[in-house]
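Researcher: Good morning. I'm working through a list of sequences from a screen, and I'd like to move beyond sequence-only analysis. For each chain I'm collecting a predicted structure so we can compare shapes side by side. This is the next one on the list. No need for commentary yet; just the structure.
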Amino acid sequence: MRVSLGIDIGGTFIKGGVVLDDGKLLEFTKIKTPETRGVKETIEAVLELIKLLSKGRKINSVGIASAGCVSKDGVIIFSPNFPSWRSIPLKAILEQELGIKVIVDNDANAHAFGEHEVGHAKGIDDFILLTLGTGVGGAVFSEGRLIRGSMGIGGELGHILVGEEGPTCGCGNIGCLETYASISGLSKLMKMEGLNEATERVSELAKLYKKGEKRALTIIEQFKKYLRRALISYVHIFNPKLIILGGGLSKDFREILEGLEEEVNERVMPSFRGSFRIAFSFLYEEAGVLGIALIALKDER
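Model: Good morning. Structure tokens for this chain:
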């Protein structure tokens, strides 16, 4: 069997794993993303992780999943949560360092591919993935193929405009879904409401919400409203059979999000009602690693 390394560069952690071409995950580990999120420091961390996972193994390919807009030739054009990453030829840099084929893709695309191969979307050709993590990532499968667009950077579902106010998004815009439904966005909203005094962790927001804390109620109800608004638009545009919610927030807020499918169904056009279901990813941390490793092995690009 061929063996691939999958590396998922996130705003909080860099995750890595050893994956066989049948989708079996042999090893998984993660390290903290450098606090600076700088290009040099992050690439050094990635290379160290690759070295660790490669020890004693023959590796056929390496896949790198990165947040942000990734071109077809593996260049990080722009990444809202990694501000210094602009026009970084990550594929070329890593191939020169490693002397092996490297595939670089968007992290949500990788997650979606993993879902299609071994997750909820196995056997489903039309689905949407929305990752609620440090930022909000998205990917769309239509008729069994990942929609990439002319430059390969399509599917930025986290930057659909759903509001008209609030803090500025990492992309520079105002009103993006990411502003209201990501860890980075909710952290800013908590600070604006003075909730950073009560908790420094967004995951604790759900507990305050359940206790009826007024400021937490305001933030969470806003989160739900704008997420619901975005999902309604996605249903109308893409007509998916399945919507998968992934990322850390989908896990921490799962109880809060119960009933979301029914709420979205109430607001879509009658012809779309009952045509889709909403599921929570069970792959969680491993999804991006699995997906990008399999993309590298199959070289879908």
